[in-house]
């Protein structure tokens, strides 16, 4: 595992299980004036989803706008995303998480099947920060319900500190659910501080939010900023994504 941990296109599984640490091989990868707990933002999965499903061009256009001006920006459209989502569908939930009950908690709140969506990803990578913004316009009600239910996680149940085995190494991660307000019917934000070895730590924040048929995942990671600073930027990007989604509908 490199000093700069890597993101991959397996949204909920990545951010809930490892919050930014993945098994990938490439080095690339809020304005919260009111604090709201995840449970305060919960909607009803049985209610009809609101908002139109976006097409591939719309989703890619939104993803491309969110990191404009950032260094080394890459945008992956729906055509390239679909093979990744198909591969992720049958992927095993990451193992090597200790204590064992924390691995069970991760499995309970993991969604690996997002094939029922139109998707796009925008990434930016620099020495200071890695950013990933993923937009999913959900086309399947079962997928929407699975995402909706996964975002119900509101208690880490004594799993704030976990050990993750990856590449033959054990990495300690300290995690915290952040009570942040996002412009969505349901959201879950989590910060993670990981020991990268050599006296270095890596901080990441993942903001996941669902509104109607549209799901947004923003993940930021750095070795030089604290989670509170990352959270502000992550929520701003998530809110901007939903503003763009509503404008496109």
Overall mean confidence score, pLDDT: 78
The global form is globular
Structural class: alpha+beta
Largest sheet data: 9 strands, antiparallel
Our estimate of the beta-strand percent is 25-35%
Q: What is the tally of beta strands?
A: 9
Please work out how many helical segments DSSP would assign.
6
Helix-strand string: HHEHEHEEHEEEEEH
Distance between the termini: 41 Å
> Which regions are unreliable across 5 or more consecutive residues at pLDDT < 50?
1-50
Sequence of strands across the biggest β-sheet = 1-3-4-9-8-7-6-5-2
If you compute it from the alpha carbons, what radius of gyration comes out, rounded to the nearest whole angstrom?
16 Å
Helix content: 25-40%
Describe the structure.
The protein is α+β, with helices and mostly antiparallel strands and 249 residues long. The protein has six helices and nine strands, in the order ααβαβαββαβββββα. The protein has helices at residues 11-17, 56-66, 78-89, 100-108, 141-150, 227-248; strands at 74-76, 97-98, 117-125, 130-138, 161-166, 169-178, 186-197, 200-211, 214-222. The protein has a nine-stranded antiparallel β-sheet, with helices on both faces. β8 (200-211) and β9 form a beta hairpin. It is globular, with a radius of gyration of 16 Å.
């Amino acid at each position: 595992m490199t000093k700069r941990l890597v993101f991959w296109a397996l949204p909920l599984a990545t951010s809930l299980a490892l919050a930014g640490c993945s098994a990938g091989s490439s080095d690339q990868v809020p304005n919260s004036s009111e604090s709201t707990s995840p449970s305060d933002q919960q909607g009803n999965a049985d209610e009809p989803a609101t908002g139109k499903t976006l097409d591939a061009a719309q989703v890619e256009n939104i993803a491309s706008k969110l990191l404009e001006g950032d260094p080394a920006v890459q945008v992956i459209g729906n055509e390239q995303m679909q093979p990744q989502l198909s591969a992720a569908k049958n992927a095993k939930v990451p193992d090597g998480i200790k204590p064992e009950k924390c691995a069970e908690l991760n499995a309970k709140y993991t969604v690996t099947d997002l094939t029922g969506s139109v998707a796009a990803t925008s990434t930016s990578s620099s020495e200071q920060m890695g950013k990933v913004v993923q937009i999913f316009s959900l086309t399947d009600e079962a997928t929407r319900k699975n995402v909706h239910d996964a975002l119900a996680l509101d208690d880490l149940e004594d799993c704030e500190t976990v050990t993750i085995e990856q590449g033959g190494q054990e990495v300690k991660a300290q995690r915290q659910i952040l009570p942040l307000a996002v412009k969505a019917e349901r959201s879950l934000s989590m910060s993670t501080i990981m020991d990268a070895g050599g006296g270095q730590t890596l901080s990441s924040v993942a903001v996941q939010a669902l509104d109607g048929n549209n799901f947004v995942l923003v993940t930021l990671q750095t070795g030089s900023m604290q989670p509170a600073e990352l959270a502000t930027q992550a929520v701003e990007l998530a809110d901007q994504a939903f503003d763009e989604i509503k404008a496109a509908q």
